[in-house]
Amino acid sequence: MSKKILVYGGSFDPPHRGHLLLLKAAFKAVRPDFCHVVPAFVSPFKSGPAESFVSRKRLIGLALEEAFSPAERKKITVDPFECRQKRKTYTYELLRHLRRRYPCAVFYLLMGSDCALSFGKWRNYREVAAGAQLLVGLRSDTPDTTPAREICSFRTLDGTFPPVSSTSVRSRIYSSGKVPHDVPDAVAGYIKKRGLYGLRAHKYLKTRLKPERCEHSLGVAKLARELAERHGGDPADAALAGLLHDAGKQYSRGRLRAFAARHGLLRKPWLREIAQNQPSLLHSFAGAVIARREFSVSSEDILLAVENHTLGRAGMTQLEKIIFVADASSEERGFRAAREIRAAAFKDLDAAVCKTAAMKLSHIIKGAKWFCPKGLELWNSLIRRAREKGSAE
Ligand SMILES: [Fe+2]
Ligand SMILES: [Fe+2]
């Protein structure tokens, strides 16, 4: 009789209870002879310190130990196929690889209904559907799979599954320093022990920043996460950028000048002027260096957002806008203008950027402070954009 092979791919970054519930339901429905859990390759350039294959393999192992009997666990392999390719791998490639290993087997491919809805966009999806029976767990956020059924047939698992995602788990750890209950206990314990998913950054900031600055960093991380969710950005990237944005605040003005000189920051446009006139502004640029060197953040998007959170710049990315606005309007900033910016940001991010820049400009004029030309570039770009928009309407 043909062997039954259950295949379950995903980022598992980190694994959560939603993954386990789905896998358990599939075990019950199919009773597989073997199961391959296949963590996706996570590009080191895509995001922040999402964790390595080695860490994720350990976390998956702990999650499986918690949820499955020893006999069931013996059937499960955490398959390094995708991570060994060192690139994004498609499911049809994975199935071809497994078919070479089990030429006579029957394959079952497990997924949540959220993935099933995009199945028609998968590379060579017809080959995938012909080579494996699709097993779909209905998630409470995507219970209607009618559009997917028009593309291919699949078997639905009993029950409904929670709409948890690894991205949402990561974003909550970054923004709160706490591991949510969606993560199995043993996995949470290992994440805490190793300081994974930004927990080491939380500890670093707590020992170096004043308590009110730590509270502000958490406030910015939380608001940034919410704004990214609202505007279709990556909430984990936003939360991490928010968490780290003021890491450079640990230094005095003198040390910031020395830090900037040591790390070659004074070669960047305007930074020599900033160092002379208002060295405290260097903390944003120092923060980006700390994020990269101390916490291996390689995402240019996150680094730019940290770097430009105070002065902004003309032509900001969505994440830069989110951090620029969140820094000025996080919840612990109790003043009226902050509340107005916060409310505006959920409706129209560009309007909130204008409000933030105007508030900063008026603060500079009222305090008779030096106006950094970089801030002026942002202001002029916003005015230009508003005029172009006005003449287009
Ligand atoms: Fe700052
Ligand atoms: Fe800040």
Q: How is this structure best described in words?
A:
The chain is of the alpha/beta class. It has two domains: 4-163, HUPs (Rossmann fold), CATH 3.40.50; 198-392, Hypothetical protein af1432. It contains 21 helices and six strands. Helix 13 (235-244) packs across helix 18 and helix 16 runs antiparallel to helix 17 (300-307). The longest helix has 21 residues, at 211-231. The radius of gyration is 24 Å and the shape is elongated. One fe (ii) ion binds next to helix 16.
List the helices and strands and how they pair.
Layout: E1 4-10, H1 17-30, E2 34-39, H2 53-67, H3 70-74, E3 76-78, H4 81-85, H5 91-101, E4 106-112, H6 113-116, H7 125-131, E5 133-139, H8 146-149, E6 155-161, H9 166-176, H10 185-194, H11 199-208, H12 211-231, H13 235-244, H14 253-262, H15 271-277, H16 283-295, H17 300-307, H18 318-329, H19 336-347, H20 349-366, H21 373-392
Parallel strand pairs: 1-2, 1-4, 2-3, 4-5, 5-6
Helix pairs in contact: 2-10, 9-12, 9-13, 12-13, 12-18, 13-17, 13-18, 16-17, 17-18, 18-19, 18-20, 19-20, 20-21
This protein binds fe (ii) ion (2 copies).
One fe (ii) ion is lined by residues 245-246, 283-284, 309-310, 327.
